[in-house]
Amino acid sequence: MTDDSDWAATVEKVRADPRLARCTDPVVRAVDIAHVRFSRTDVKRQADFLADFGLHETGRAQGWTAFSAVGGYGPCYLLSEGDDAFRGLALAVGSRSDLERLAALPDASAIEPALCWPEGEQVKLTDPAGNRVHAVHGPLAPAAAPRESLSHNIDGELRRLNAMQRPPAQPATILRLGHAVLGVVDFFRCVRWYMDHFGLIPSDVQTIGEGDPALMFMRCDRGDTPTDHHTLVIAQNVVNGFSHCAFECIDVDDIAMGQEWLHSRGWKHAWGMGRHLLGSQIFNYWRDPVGAKHEHFIDSDKFTAARPPDVSPLSSGGLYQWGPPVPADFEKPKMSPRLLWRAFRNVRASEEMSFARARALMRAMKDPPRPWH
Fold first, then answer.
1. How far apart are CA 9 and CA 3, in angstroms?
2. 3-state helix, strand, coil in the chain (%, to 5)
């Protein structure tokens, strides 16, 4: 048997894994991601970063400050004072009846007003990793009109004559929140929860060892309506935590001018620019005042529900097609006795994670992504 046929068998095995099978009758089918939530000890400094990143303050309620993009389902970023922590995310659903179905679940809240979103409503749930997940629904506000994407004289086609490219020196224009990435200890429990509750479906599955799934790119199931390659990414880890959130911009010049602006304001660059392998987005990552990663991106792959998941081995090379090497600290947490103790306790308590599996995850990301790196 050839290596190619071995891998083809692995792909079919992963696609047939019942733990990752699409739910034929989820509670609801989410239509998109709506917002992320954070608390910070220094709210003003975080707000300054968000303004330079490209978000706009649009309201305050119940101790939360809301920040919005050009479009989206209510505010896309909610900030409160408190410990420096990720406080959850929200997925948009298509109708109030969807909220009613979720509110009927044993561990869900009643339907209540959504923060800083006139006429918006929400239901609160908690995923198996302990993340607060809000299901939200409400009327979309009219989107502001950003500048048009710049035209380019390429491929022998003249698109711009007697005119110059002069994108403005200002923060990037955030069109919408695109996705969030979470690390979880119990990988299969978590992906199953999002598939069964919100109808998310796999776009790409990455594996360790002998084809054992450990990371999933998940998208909304909107039938024949194209949707982003991923709305939520779940990656197995020895601790539960936030990896990054990603925001769509206008074009590559918008990202680049946003980079110039953020550099000029003294913020810390994390990684980029480059193009992802899975999802194909051109990306650029920044760190907020406490080190959490926030991404600018453009040009996501769009899938309908008909496309089956792809399968690939987990590696740092799978993060990107081109761009600078992945920084050593990009996914590595700050080591501390507390973190090591948490990781040890999680591995001992989990039915999915083991010390051998943790070592396999580390090996998968350790090898250089390219021979020349």
1. 10
2. 25, 30, 45
> Hunting for tokens 């650029």 — which residue is that?
284
The pLDDT of residue 2: 47
Q: What is the pLDDT of residue 293?
A: 98
CA angle 318–367–229, rounded 5-degree value: 10
Strand 112-113 versus strand 201-208 pairing type: unpaired
Structure tokens at 271: 């990684």
Give the confidence band of 338 by pLDDT, cuts at 50, 70, 90: confident
Q: Containing H/E element for 102?
A: helix 96-103
Summarised one tens digit per residue, pLDDT across range 319-329 is: 999 999 999 88
Phi-psi region of 135 (alpha: psi -120 to 50; beta: other; left: phi over 0): beta
Length of the chain: 373
Reply yes or no on domain 29-140+173-366 having CATH 3.10.180.10: yes
Tell me which of 5-19, 111-125, 193-207 is least confident: 5-19
216 - beta bridge partners? 205, 234
Edge-first strand order for the sheet with 232-236 is 268-275, 282-287, 293-298, 241-248, 176-184, 232-236, 212-219, 201-208, 310-313
| Distance in angstroms (rounded) separating the CA atoms of residues 152 and 194 | 41
pTM above 0.85, yes or no: yes
